[in-house]
Amino acid sequence: MRRLIALTAAVSCIAVASAASPLKFESESRNLGRVARKSRTETVFRFVNDTQAPVVITGAKSPCGCTKVRFPSRPVMPHATDSLTVVFNATERGAFYKKITIATSSGQQTIAVRGTVE
Asked: What is the pTM assigned to this prediction?
């Protein structure tokens, strides 16, 4: 009985996550590798709107001011492909992992960049 309840809960969580994630990214994480200190690195995340309705990206939030996101201001039409750009300004030496929350008209999603600043 416990297994049945656990399985039902897991399936429900997956269904909710799928409903809240209309944008399907080619990759939700990107390794920027070794980055020179005081440099600026850009990476592009491509995605497709995997729904039957237009999706609007309403914002993007990063954990600090060193990571910015440029995203399309127009609605992404159903099954259309588009992209957003993450810009990382390397200020401090060491490993980094920046999780970025993308807010859409259908919910929130996360992508991430990581690497090492030398």
From this structure: 0.79
